Fold this protein.
Amino acid sequence: MIQGLLALAGLALLVPPAAAVPLQDAKPKAAAPKKATPKKGRHAPAKPKAAAAKPDAPKLQPSAETLRVHDWVSSAGDNHGLPYLIVDKPHAALFLYDAHGKQLAAVPVLIGIAPGDDATPGIGAKQLSEIGPAEKTTPAGRYLAKFGLAVGKERVLWVDYYTSVALHPVPTGAAARKEKRRERLASPTPDDNRITFGCINVPSTFYAKLLSPMYKGKGGYVYVLPDSKPIEDVFPALHVQSVAAR
């Protein structure tokens, strides 16, 4: 009898005590995540680096040639009370002024792929497919620009209708995307801004919100600076300005 009781007592010591919390309220404790131990001969994975920010395009400043033309136009009244803009081809930049000569904006532009200051005779009558690489120039000079229709009934600002030089927003078609025209316009240097057949491409927001309202109706003047010609040959009135400065 006594041996039986001792055996039962021994079994009781082997059985764990009942949990104090009912099973339906007990929640399994989440196992603490084990820290990954790098294997021998291998480095721990490096943290991904943040993407490098693209450099901002520098703020456009008028060149000495742009300031010369602006001073002459505003002092001589060559714009005849109309707004005007100066396209600085060497720096692929455009500066817009109101009728009184106050600068309103400065934006990058895309221009003709070939350097040059003269339009090829008869180029206005050619199809785009007939224009050779050396003919894709933006001619220098002084122009009275007005709005009109182009092929496809698209409304553009004609700088020189007879040589088919227009000023319009950067195209959005497949060909323009292939040429990366928007990327060229946003690049920090003017080195890749020569890509058009001769027309002047500008940012669409600038064209719609500022340029178009100013040039509707009577239009306005466009002064395109030369690539290689002496600036006085393109704008003869600057000869007088140079003499006066002396």
Remarks:
- Residues 1-32 have pLDDT under 50 and may be disordered.
